Structures are given as C-alpha cells and as structure tokens.
C-alpha cells in the first residue's frame, strides 16, 4: 500500500510502499478515504526537538482520518464491513487508575497513532475496534477527517458552562475557530476571537458568528466596553500557545473567570501568578479529547446544526501531499484534507 512515512531523521515526509497491516483479534482494518494534516504532522515534517525525541524512524505518520472498515478481527462485535468511520488516535492502556475509572483520556500510558505507532497516512490503517467511531450518513468523509481537532475544540469549549457567558478565544487557528463555532452553537453571549494574522481572522469571520480582534493593532479593553461587558470575559479558551495571548487573556477576564488552556506554550513561560490569585481565576489544562464523551457530543452537535465545514480551506489528492503541507505551513490555511482515493 501507499504510505506517507517519516523514513529519515531529517526534515520531510516521503511517499513510500508498506505492507498492508495485519490485524489482531481485537482490531479492524480501515481503508482510508480522507486524512487531515495536523500541526503535529508539521512538527514531525520539520523534525523539531519534540519530534526528534518522540517519533521513531521509520514511521507512517498521520492521525486524523475517515475511512471504511474492510476487515474485522475474530473478537470484534458491533461493527461491520463497509461501515464508514473515524476513530480515536490515542491507544490507551488498561492498567492505570484513570483507565480503570473510565477516564481513558487521562491514561498516562497512552500511545498515539502517527506519533508513536503506525499512523493513518496510508491506504490502510489497523486500529483497535475499541477506538473506532462510526460515522453517521450525514457526516461526510471531509468532516470525518477533522473530527480529531474538532474534538480538541469541543473538549476545550465544553470545559466550562458557556450558556449566556462572554467567551474570549485567543488564537484563530483551525482549533480556535472551530471552538468559536462551538461556543456560539451552545449558547454563549459574546464570542470574541483574537489573532495577529489577518487571514486567520478573516477565516474566523467566515466560519463562525464571532467578533474578531487583531491584537497586533487593537487592545481588548475597548472591545469589552463596546460589547457592554461589566468587567471582562467569563470564560477564556487559550488556543494560540503564545505567552502574550495568555497574559492578555488573564488581564481581560472577570473576577472568578475560568480559563481552559489547550495551546502549548514553548518551554517554561513566565506567568504573573498574583494576578491569577487576586482575580480568583480557575485554569484547566486540556489534553486531547474525552474518550469517548467528546466524540459523542461533537457528532450530536454536527447532526444538529453545528457547521464547521468552512474550516477546510484546501483539498488535495494524496500524491500532492507536498502542496498540502506547504499550505499548512503558510499560516494562511484552515484545515487541509488529503484524498487517498485519488
Ligand atoms: P495554530 O498554530 O494553527 O493556531 C495558533 C494561532 O494563534 C495562529 O493563527 C497564530 O497566528 C495565533 N497567535 C499567535 N500569537 C498570538 C497572540 N499573541 N494572540 C492571539 N493569537 C495568536 O494551532 P491549532 O492547530 O489551531 O492549535 C491551537 C493550539 O493548540 C496550538 O498551540 C497547538 O499546539 C495546541 N494543541 C494542543 C492540543 C492538546 O491536546 N493540548 C491538541 C492539539 C493542539
Ligand atoms: Zn491532530
């Protein structure tokens, strides 16, 4: 089969041929239709410090996918050949306290497809049946291929009650923009999204009903006044990984505000803790998505009017993967989807 692999310990990914994976009794074999390119795949392409210490070589990369089941292991029940699906890319253990309590997303023994284990950028993927998430007819393969990052957005956005709340999202990357659409969908009052990249803010306006602020040019205080908020934002979703954005968020929060942090700041970023203490702010770190509660909720929302389709800005046949990665690296794109059937 065709597979997009990290063949060498240097910058780049290579299209190669690999054997179709053999499945175990508890696995399924999935024929991949579409895949999404993630920021993680860009780290692996660039072979940065994180990738060098995390990713074995050679490895088939990719973890955002939609496809259909073509083979079932002997023990697999409740799934069928021909069934369309996406799936959770975190392969969890069964021994930790968290797993045994059903908090699968908190299992410290988790391994990621396309990061630690063979991934989804291939014509076929082996996946434990446990990880499979069937796709309803109303959810396209394009959307199926971006459920992983939509799950990050949904998990973060649903960290706190948003009904009637004023929500600040820092970072209008694909995940921040999808989180804005989710916040709107679940009934937030004002949703404000910031970035320093005007293309990303323009995309945010297309995809979600939000107020955009270019923080390279404008402060948040006048926006808070214009929207007639009493003190500031009730809930913050940090989705830029930028230290200045977090700082600005803390400043713009109301007393007792709640912040969910998905963005990954580089290294040990300095934080003014006294402001967090005196404002009595709650900060929650967010990793991945809840297995499988987030999947359940996002599919329910997609089937009931949540529309994030505009976040896919580029589609390429897989043989043009280099153009796909270039689009992602440009900082001008939303999600980029590769088609494995062409
Ligand atoms: P992205 O890099 O595409 O988007 C980040 C955006 O933040 C960019 O548009 C950038 O211009 C903007 N930005 C930079 N400085 C800013 C500032 N001062 N104020 C406001 N915006 C600013 O990333 P993404 O794929 O949308 O992911 C969002 C973040 O979530 C990233 O940091 C990513 O590493 C992280 N992430 C975390 C998890 C997790 O499990 N915790 C999972 C996926 C992604
Ligand atoms: Zn991803």
TrEMBL record:
**In terms of domain of life, where is this protein from?**
Bacteria
The upper taxonomy is:
Bacteria, Pseudomonadati, Pseudomonadota, Alphaproteobacteria, Rhodobacterales
Asked whether the UniProt record includes Zinc-finger among its keywords, one would answer no
Please state the Enzyme Commission number of this protein: 1.1.1.103
Q: What is this protein called?
A: L-threonine 3-dehydrogenase
Q: Which residues form a coiled coil?
A: none
Tell me which Pfam families the record gives: ADH_N (PF08240), ADH_zinc_N (PF00107)
Keyword Oxidoreductase present in the record's keywords: the answer is yes
Q: What class of enzyme is it?
A: oxidoreductase
Cofactor needs: Zn(2+)
Alphabetically ordered keywords of this record? Metal-binding, Oxidoreductase, Zinc
Residues covered by the Enoyl reductase (ER) domain: 12-338
Picking any one GO molecular function of the record gives: L-threonine 3-dehydrogenase activity
């Amino acid at each position: 089969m065709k597979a997009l692999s990290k063949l060498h310990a240097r910058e780049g990914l290579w299209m190669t041929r690999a054997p179709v994976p053999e499945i175990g009794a508890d696995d399924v074999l999935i024929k991949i239709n579409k895949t999404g390119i993630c920021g993680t795949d860009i780290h692996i392409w660039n072979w940065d410090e994180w990738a060098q210490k995390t990713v074995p070589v050679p490895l088939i990369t990719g973890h955002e996918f939609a496809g259909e089941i073509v083979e079932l292991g002997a023990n697999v029940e409740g799934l069928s050949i021909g069934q369309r699906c996406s799936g959770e890319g975190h392969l969890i253990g069964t021994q930790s306290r968290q797993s045994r309590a059903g908090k699968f997303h908190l299992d410290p023994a988790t391994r990621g497809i396309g990061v630690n284990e063979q991934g989804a950028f291939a014509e076929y993927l082996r996946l434990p049946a446990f990880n499979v998430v069937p796709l309803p007819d109303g959810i396209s393969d394009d959307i199926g291929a971006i459920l992983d990052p939509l799950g990050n957005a949904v998990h973060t956005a649903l960290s706190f009650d948003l009904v009637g709340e004023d929500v600040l999202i820092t970072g209008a990357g694909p995940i921040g923009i999808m989180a804005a659409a989710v916040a709107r969908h679940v009934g937030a009052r004002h949703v404000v999204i910031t970035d320093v990249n005007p293309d990303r803010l323009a995309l945010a306006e297309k995809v979600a009903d939000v107020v955009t602020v270019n923080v390279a040019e404008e402060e948040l205080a006048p926006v808070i006044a214009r929207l007639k908020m009493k003190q500031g934002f009730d809930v913050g979703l940090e989705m830029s990984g930028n230290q200045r954005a977090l700082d600005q968020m803390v400043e713009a929060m109301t007393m007792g505000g709640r912040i969910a942090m998905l963005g990954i700041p580089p290294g040990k970023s300095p934080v003014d803790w006294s402001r967090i203490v005196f404002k009595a702010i709650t900060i929650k770190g967010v990793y991945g998505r809840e297995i499988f509660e987030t999947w359940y909720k996002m599919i329910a929302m997609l089937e009931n009017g949540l529309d994030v389709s505009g976040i896919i800005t580029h589609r390429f046949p897989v043989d043009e993967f280099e153009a796909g990665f270039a689009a992602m690296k440009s900082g001008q794109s939303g999600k980029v989807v590769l088609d494995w059937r062409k």
